[in-house]
Task: structure prediction
Amino acid sequence: MVYAVVRSGGRQEKVEVGTIVTMDRIKADKAGAIQLVAVLHVDGEKITSDAASLAKIKVTAEVLEDLRGPKIIIQKFKNKTGYKKRQGHRQELTRVKITEIK
Result:
């Protein structure tokens, strides 16, 4: 089993070829492909974790769609002062499919 742990947007994801992952918004090139940074690579029984070897490993992904996450409501309230504040946030996300690990 070949898989890699990639870093994107301050998070780490375990990916294999064919895995569909939702991560923070990433700009793709004209062909819709992106390169992800590998933090760990497992190829059968061989585990690679040193930076020099990981620099040679390429994890390629294809952008499927850009989307937005669920709405998160932020509310602030102070008792007896009449202060209320309501704010919303929707995170910009990208759904990608891992096409190659080499």
Remarks:
- The chain has one domain: 2-101.
- Strands lie at 2-8, 11-15, 20-24, 33-43, 46-48, 59-68, 72-78, 83-89, 92-101.
- The CA atoms of residues 37 and 86 lie 37 Å apart.
